[in-house]
């Protein structure tokens, strides 16, 4: 109890006597040095410096220290060979609050072994190089602040002028639009009047044509009753006949005018055959009621039109002045004939068809199968699919459990590291999972299967399980109708002494990155597919980027998380997993 009291008293004393850096100066009078001016030469803090060659950043830290200008970013000189900028933050480290000053530097600073010194209340950081441009941070900050304020005022003036110009232009545009809209409305009313007049004239013409066609039909029907009269179906025709059977279909047409082959065209793109003979300029459409070759016949001003079924390609010939079309029969699938004919004295239909033969049932075929006959398939040639339930582990510190596979959907609850989920399906960037009796979606980068966990994640998972008093959701079972979709198919088989076809043949994999000679420096996590960035240990200027599934020497990348990369290595017939973690902010491994 006494020790705790002394520690609390010491901490309070240190907090009350926190050091203060009044200003930071850089000068190169004799040698270039960075001067941190403290408010007092008493109770000076602990100090450390660290240089990162990859990012060219020199970091200095002072324990229990404040900066008079406050934390934030300070621009110095982006082209300077020494300090180019300063990023000041307050961060806890090893039980103490540190003032961290990270400085992007030029080529003149390339080490963290820089000499240090103390001149009264000024702490000096000395550099080997010379001929730098001197500056004082407070003056730079004041000048930058003044320039920024002036830029803001200039920008506000410019934007005000632009707004005023835009408002004036909007008024002009609105007036022009209103004028054009009035002209458009007037033109639309005139167009409506014109269309109404055209519709009225078209309706009147159609009524006259319909009355004329009805009169022509009545006259033809009346003439059909008289001896020697023309067809009651269409004027100018004597006979239309359809015969179907024995694998062929034939259409025969006889007109009042004797036909010749030179007056008959081949079918056009709309499957119409034109017969160039004289007849009425217009007639009703006669629809053929049998067969699948000819659909209809009608007259127009160019002659007689025969409309074929789409895709029909009949043979065309003229015999004794009659037109004959013939093609393979595909409408009737029975033995016999169908005969249909239209003549001046009426329509005739005859059907000579035989009943189809009885088709044997499949059950009769099965009964005749011999039970002891040789089987074609043997057990050594078959594969068996068996369902395997797979469990997912939440590896993110915290993530959302969505109602749909979208970050904009409803969040049903939040899950944390170590929670167990039942894997159901993969939908793009999201996995469909089950938690208890609820089914939803989580980001697939926030979860992993047990065999994909890195060594660091496994150790953390064990601690989480111990704190929770065991694996809380281990062995959870799906419920309801979701049983059929909670499994993933795995293939098992018997090789019977043959080589395993699912094991990669050694020697065919090309040489790749040797993970023993590289280190992990970054992970790009926001992309749809995370990317790991590695650099060579002996040559940091050479870097590589890897995605999940990419091959390396003797293996591949198995899994990429926010902090680790898990590799699968296969050497000498033995598989092992190797994980590589990101360094922490002070250079050590997480």
Provide tags for this entry:
37 strands; SH3 type barrels; Immunoglobulin-like; 6-stranded antiparallel beta sheet; 6-stranded mixed beta sheet; alpha+beta
Summarize the structure in words.
This protein has 590 residues and is α+β, with helices and mostly antiparallel strands. Among the domains are: 19-133, Sandwich (Immunoglobulin-like); 237-353; 384-492, Roll (SH3 type barrels), CATH 2.30.30.40; 515-581, SH3 type barrels. It contains four helices and 37 strands. The strands form nine sheets. Strands 1, 2, 5, 9, 10 and 11 form a six-stranded mixed β-sheet that branches. β26 and β27 (430-435) form a beta hairpin. The two termini are 34 Å apart.
Annotate the secondary structure layout.
Elements: H1 2-16, E1 19-27, E2 33-38, E3 47-52, E4 57-63, E5 65-67, E6 72-75, E7 85-93, E8 96-104, E9 115-119, E10 122-126, E11 135-136, H2 137-224, E12 237-245, E13 248-255, E14 272-275, E15 286-287, E16 294-300, E17 303-308, E18 315-319, E19 322-328, E20 336-343, E21 346-353, H3 362-367, E22 384-388, E23 391-394, E24 398-402, E25 411-416, E26 420-427, E27 430-435, E28 438-443, E29 447-449, H4 455-467, E30 488-492, E31 518-524, E32 531-536, E33 543-546, E34 551-552, E35 555-560, E36 564-571, E37 574-581
Parallel strand pairs: 1-5
Antiparallel strand pairs: 1-2, 1-11, 2-10, 3-4, 4-8, 6-7, 7-8, 9-10, 12-13, 12-20, 13-19, 14-17, 15-16, 16-17, 18-19, 20-21, 22-30, 23-26, 23-29, 24-25, 26-27, 27-28, 31-32, 32-33, 34-35, 35-36, 36-37
Quick take:
The chain has 590 residues and is an alpha+beta fold. The protein has four helices and 37 strands.
């Amino acid at each position: 109890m006494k020790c705790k009291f002394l520690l609390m008293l010491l901490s309070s004393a240190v907090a009350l006597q926190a050091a203060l850096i009044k200003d930071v100066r850089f000068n190169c009078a004799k040698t270039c040095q960075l001067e941190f001016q403290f408010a007092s030469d008493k109770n000076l803090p602990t100090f450390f410096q660290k240089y990162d060659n990859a990012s060219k950043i020199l970091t200095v830290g002072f324990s229990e220290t404040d900066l008079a200008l406050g934390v934030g970013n300070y621009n110095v000189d982006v082209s300077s060979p020494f300090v180019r900028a300063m990023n000041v933050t307050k961060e806890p480290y090893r039980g103490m609050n540190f003032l961290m000053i990270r400085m992007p530097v030029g080529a003149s600073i390339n080490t963290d072994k820089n000499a240090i010194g103390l001149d009264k209340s000024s702490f000096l950081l000395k550099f080997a190089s010379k001929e730098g441009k001197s500056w004082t941070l407070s003056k730079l900050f004041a000048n930058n602040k003044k320039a920024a304020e002036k830029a803001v005022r200039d920008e506000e003036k410019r934007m005000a002028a632009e707004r005023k110009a835009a408002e004036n232009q909007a008024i002009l545009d609105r007036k022009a639009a209103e004028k054009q809209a009035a002209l458009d409305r007037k033109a639309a009313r005139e167009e409506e009047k014109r269309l109404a007049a055209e519709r009225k004239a078209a309706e009147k013409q159609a009524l006259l044509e319909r009355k004329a066609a009805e009169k022509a039909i009545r006259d033809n029907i009346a003439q059909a009753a008289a001896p020697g009269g023309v067809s009651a179906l269409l004027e100018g025709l004597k006979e239309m006949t359809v015969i179907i059977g024995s694998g062929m279909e034939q259409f025969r047409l006889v007109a009042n005018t004797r036909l010749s082959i030179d007056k008959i065209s081949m079918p056009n793109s709309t499957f119409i055959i034109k017969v160039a003979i004289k007849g009425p300029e217009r007639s009703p459409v006669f629809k053929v009621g049998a067969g699948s070759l000819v659909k209809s016949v009608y007259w127009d001003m160019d002659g007689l039109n025969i409309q074929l079924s789409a895709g029909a390609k009949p043979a065309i010939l003229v015999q004794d002045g009659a037109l004959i079309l013939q093609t393979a029969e595909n409408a009737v699938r029975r033995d016999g004939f169908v005969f249909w004919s239209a003549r001046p004295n009426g329509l005739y239909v005859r059907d000579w068809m035989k009943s189809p033969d009885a088709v044997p049932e499949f059950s009769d075929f099965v009964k005749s199968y011999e039970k002891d006959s040789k089987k074609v398939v043997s057990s050594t040639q078959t594969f068996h699919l068996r369902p395997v339930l797979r469990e997912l582990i939440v590896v993110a510190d915290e993530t959302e459990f969505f109602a749909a596979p979208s970050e904009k959907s409803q969040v049903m609850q939040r899950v944390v590291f170590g929670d167990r989920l039942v894997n159901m399906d993969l939908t793009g960037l999201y996995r469909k999972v089950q938690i208890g009796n609820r089914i939803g979606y989580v980001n697939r980068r926030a979860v992993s299967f047990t065999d994909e966990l890195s060594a660091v994640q496994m150790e953390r998972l064990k601690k989480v399980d111990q704190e929770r008093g065991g694996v809380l959701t281990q062995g959870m079972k799906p419920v309801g109708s979701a049983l059929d979709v909670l499994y993933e198919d795995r293939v098992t088989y018997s090789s019977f002494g043959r080589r395993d076809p699912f094991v990669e043949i050694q020697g065919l994999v090309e040489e790749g990155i040797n993970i023993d000679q590289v280190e992990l420096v970054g992970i790009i996590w926001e992309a749809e597919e995370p990317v790991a960035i590695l650099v060579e240990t002996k040559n940091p200027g050479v870097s590589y980027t890897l995605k999940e599934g990419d091959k390396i020497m003797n293996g591949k990348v198995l899994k990429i998380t926010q902090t680790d990369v898990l590799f699968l290595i296969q050497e000498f017939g033995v598989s092992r997993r190797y994980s590589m973690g990101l360094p922490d902010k002070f250079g050590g491994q997480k």
